[in-house]
Amino acid sequence: MFVFVDGTFGDAIGTLRNSSNQYLWDFVADSPIISSFNLYIYGFPSRCLSSSFAVNKAADYLYQQMELAGVHKHKQVIFVAHSMGGLVVETMLLRYEKLAERTPLILGGRFTAAKADR
């Protein structure tokens, strides 16, 4: 299972899309190895962006939403996180050790590679 997490001031669609309207997960899904994985894309709801926003709160909310979506049923979960989303994922994994045990890889950073033409 791949989980894409946007930054807190972006959105799940715009952050992961380049100027040619190609999405990062389209590049990933074309890989013969990765195409057998399920994808889950998460964007922070606007109420997480209020002045009282806290990383711990966002980490708990992400965990709850993944649980509702069935992400926790997968044997392995690989996170691809943008910007503050990486900090939220890291905090979540420190708080929820059972999920951390099933997380072999976390990728993060700015997704400038998705802007390149193939």
What sort of overall outline do the alpha carbons produce when their principal axes are compared?
Answer: globular
For the largest beta sheet, what order do the strands appear in spatially? 2-1-3-4
N- and C-termini, Cα separation: 24 Å
In the residues, how many domains can be counted?
A: 1
Low-confidence runs (pLDDT<50, min 5 residues)?
111-118
Figure out the total of helices.
4
Radius of gyration: 14 Å
Annotation, overall tally of beta strands: 4
Coarse structural class = alpha/beta
Features:
alpha/beta, 118 residues, 4-stranded parallel sheet
Tell me briefly what this model is.
32% of the residues lie in helices and 13% in strands. With 118 residues, it is an alpha/beta fold.
Write the layout of secondary structure elements.
Layout: E1 2-5, H1 24-29, E2 39-42, H2 55-69, E3 78-81, H3 84-95, H4 97-101, E4 106-108
Parallel strand pairs: 1-2, 1-3, 3-4
Q: Can you describe this structure?
A:
By secondary structure, this protein is of the alpha/beta class. The protein has one domain. It contains four helices and four strands. The protein has helices spanning 24-29, 55-69, 84-95, 97-101; strands at 2-5, 39-42, 78-81, 106-108. It has a four-stranded parallel beta sheet, covered by helices on one side. α2 crosses α3. The longest helix has 15 residues, at 55-69. The chain is globular, with a radius of gyration of 14 Å. The model is unreliable at 111-118 (pLDDT under 50).
